[in-house]
């Protein structure tokens, strides 16, 4: 105990005597000692580090600005393509694939620039469209982007003249190497496809063209049928199209169609056989059509087929071709005549008559023209004359055009 007391006294003696503070001094806050100052060497290292960070940030910004300027300039400037070329974007192709193919074909210089900057021009869910495009020489990446974004691809066309059968139309589609896909195994109804020129892009299926043709023909038939002459002796649109197909095949002269239609309608009204050579051809050869070197013989007029209007009364069971707009309108609103006959005039057209006597004289002139050409006498002539006028289905001198395909 004495040792401890002695040590405490020694400590107090070393620090000096304890002087009590005055009341004012006791209320005054004590000064906090200042932190130790860093050395000049430590301060220099911090400054160097901050300078390095700032320098790198500036360099990054400069590089970014230069890179952005280079990328946008490259995107806008003319490209490396020297001549116009076609480029195909397949269905389902993404931006990466399209960019790589463009670079591979030397159409653009940098696929990455095209990919990144094109992506900024596409809104959510938007993409470049499939198809075949014509890329102009020196086209910029931006030009190419705008073209592929628009979907304005190269359009091809396939034409179907009036009077072709469904089979002949199918053959044309098969010969077209741009169209894709198979044709339906079952042929559409004869007369149900509209003859016209149809435009399409690469990748279009043949079945799509057929659907367009069928829809167009149905719309056309409905429109013309609704505006028909109310006195027509036709009971349905099917009969309407059938007669229009016969008119289509009988004459290639536009101004004659309504006149030819009036002759057939007059015959139907009198219960007379139509006696149309194109119906014979369809009955013999169907949708394939008559070979070019195969004439119609007198014996063919007697062949018993459902389509031979020299044998059957009224209209054949179906159309014999696909009629165009002019033939349909000619039947819907024919000329008002009393004519029952027509025969080729030797110039590509026909001469019409209301009586058998007039018709026989016209046929005689036609025969002479054919004889002067040295025609085979066994070939059926245009307008075989009869001894007396037809009545109640009796044979009438046949209307026939010079050449039927």
From TrEMBL:
Purpose of the protein: Functions as a peptidoglycan terminase that cleaves nascent peptidoglycan strands endolytically to terminate their elongation.
EC number: 4.2.2.29
NCBIfam families in the record: endolytic transglycosylase MltG
GO molecular function list: lytic endotransglycosylase activity
Membrane topology (UniProt): Single-pass membrane protein
Species in which this protein is naturally found: Rhizobium leguminosarum
Biased composition (Polar residues): 1-15
Family: Belongs to the transglycosylase MltG family.
InterPro entries xref list: MLTG-like
Residues at the site labelled Important for catalytic activity: 250
UniProt protein name: Endolytic murein transglycosylase
Gene Ontology terms: biological process: cell wall organization; peptidoglycan biosynthetic process
Biased composition (Basic and acidic residues): 27-37
CDD domains registered for this protein in UniProt: MltG_like
Gene3D superfamilies associated with the record: Classic Zinc Finger (3.30.160.60), Endolytic murein transglycosylase (3.30.1490.480)
Gene Ontology cellular component terms for the protein in this record: plasma membrane
HAMAP family: MltG
Record region (Disordered): 1-39, 369-405
Cell location: Cell inner membrane
Keywords: Cell inner membrane, Cell membrane, Cell wall biogenesis/degradation, Lyase, Membrane, Transmembrane, Transmembrane helix
Pfam hit, one: YceG
UniProt cross-references to PANTHER family, sorted A to Z: ENDOLYTIC MUREIN TRANSGLYCOSYLASE
Gene symbol of the encoding locus: mltG
Catalysed reactions, semicolon-separated: a peptidoglycan chain = a peptidoglycan chain with N-acetyl-1,6-anhydromuramyl-[peptide] at the reducing end + a peptidoglycan chain with N-acetylglucosamine at the non-reducing end
Transmembrane residue ranges: 46-71
């Amino acid at each position: 105990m004495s040792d401890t007391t002695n040590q405490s006294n020694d400590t107090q003696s070393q620090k000096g005597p304890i002087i009590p503070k005055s009341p004012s001094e006791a209320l005054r806050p004590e000064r906090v000692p200042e932190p130790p100052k860093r050395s000049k060497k430590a301060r220099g290292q911090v400054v160097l580090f901050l300078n390095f960070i700032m320098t790198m940030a500036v360099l990054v910004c400069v590089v970014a600005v230069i890179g952005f300027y280079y990328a946008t300039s490259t995107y806008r400037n003319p490209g490396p393509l020297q001549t116009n070329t076609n480029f195909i974007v397949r269905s389902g192709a993404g931006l990466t694939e399209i960019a790589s193919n463009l670079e591979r074909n030397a159409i653009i210089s940098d696929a990455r620039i095209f990919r990144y900057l094109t992506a900024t021009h596409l809104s959510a869910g938007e993409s470049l469209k499939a198809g075949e495009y014509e890329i102009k020489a020196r086209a910029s990446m931006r030009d190419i982007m705008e073209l592929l974004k628009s979907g304005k691809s190269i359009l091809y066309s396939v034409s179907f003249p009036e009077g072709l059968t469904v089979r002949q139309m199918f053959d044309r589609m098969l010969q077209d190497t741009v169209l894709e896909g198979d044709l339906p195994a079952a042929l559409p109804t004869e007369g149900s496809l509209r003859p016209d020129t149809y435009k399409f892009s690469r990748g279009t299926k043949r079945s799509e063209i057929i659907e367009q043709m069928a829809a167009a023909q149905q719309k056309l038939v409905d429109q013309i049928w609704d505006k028909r002459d109310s006195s027509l002796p036709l009971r349905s649109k099917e009969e309407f199209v059938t007669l229009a197909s016969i008119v289509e095949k009988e004459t290639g002269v536009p101004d004659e169609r309504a006149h030819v239609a009036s002759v057939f309608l007059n015959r139907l009204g009198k219960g007379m056989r139509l006696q149309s050579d194109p119906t014979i051809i369809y009955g013999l050869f169907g949708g394939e059509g008559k070979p070019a070197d195969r004439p119609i013989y007198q014996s063919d007029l007697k062949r018993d087929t459902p389509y031979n209007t020299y044998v059957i009364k009224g209209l054949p069971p179906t159309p014999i071709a696909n009629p165009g707009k002019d033939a349909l309108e000619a039947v819907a609103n024919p000329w008002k005549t009393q004519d029952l006959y027509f025969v080729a005039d030797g110039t590509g057209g026909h001469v019409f008559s209301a009586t058998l006597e007039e018709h026989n004289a016209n046929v005689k002139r036609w025969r002479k023209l054919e004889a002067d050409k040295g025609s085979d006498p066994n070939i059926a002539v245009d307008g075989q004359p009869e001894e007396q006028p037809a009545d109640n289905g009796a044979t009438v001198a046949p209307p026939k055009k010079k050449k039927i395909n």
